[in-house]
Amino acid sequence: VADEGKDELGIISVSLNKMAQSLDDSFTNLSHNEWLQTGIAGLNDKMLGEKNLKTLTYNVLEFLADYANADVAAFYLAEDSFLNLTAGIALDESKVKKQIILGENLAGKAAVSGKEILLEDITDTDLVISYSAGTIKPKAIISVPVFYEKKLKGVFELASQKGFNQITKEFLKTSAYNIGMAIHAARDHRRLQELLAEKQAQ
Q1: What is the DSSP string of the chain?
Q2: pTM of the model
Q3: Rg from Cα positions in the chain
Q4: Which of 87, 91, 94, 123 would be 57's cystine partner, CB 3.0–4.6 Å?
Q5: With 90 as the cut, is the pLDDT of residue 11 above it?
Q6: Cα distance between residue 142 and residue 139, in whole Å
Q7: Distance separating alpha carbons of residues 150 and 132, to the nearest angstrom
Q8: 139-161: per-residue pLDDT in tens?
Q9: What are residue 116's phi and psi, to 5 degrees?
């Protein structure tokens, strides 16, 4: 009888441990979903109504860098077969390419593949994080292509001394579509303004 009691206690103990783990996983998932939704809502607020592409890309980078704990950020807009640097956060512009050919460099490869590229435990890079006492190299760089209706709109890159966890990578990937939509709307607005100016000049 004593052995049966031990067996039942063991079974109950295992069941309680599984239930506790399941609850812990559920709370973690809820927390991650809330973090993702808060981030997307905050990004949308930053982009809302902005029609100037330079301001828009800077606002996007500023928000993404802060939310993803990135130390350095760059935004390249797609034009023809090039990516042109339009905004940066804490960039040493003397070491950064202003124009990248599609397929070249990390940003160019992400643009061509249509997928984000993550480099971790980096040893060989010209990119550095500058601060008042000097510079340090980042631990991780992520390059995320931005598409809208299957058309490349740009690429953003973030570098971090801490790296990017799975939930942050998911946030950055999810953000790309909304960013693409905002860039598309800003470009449409610019074209409309140019057409109106041409009509008025006639």
Answers
A1: -HHHHHHHHHHHHHHHHHHHHHHHHHHHHHHHHHHHHHHHHHHHHHHTT---HHHHHHHHHHHHHHHTT-SEEEEEEEETTEEEEEEEES--GGGS-SEEETTSHHHHHHHHHTS-EEEES--S-S--EEETTEEE--SEEEEEEEEETTEEEEEEEEEESS---HHHHHHHHHHHHHHHHHHHHHHHHHHHHHHHHHHHH-
A2: 0.79
A3: 23
A4: 87
A5: no
A6: 10
A7: 42
A8: 899 999 999 999 999 999 999 98
A9: -70, 145
pLDDT (tens digit, 9 = 90+) per residue, 31-88?
888 999 999 999 999 999 888 999 999 999 999 999 999 999 999 999 999 999 999 9
Using the structure block, give the residue that is written with the tokens 């790296």.
163
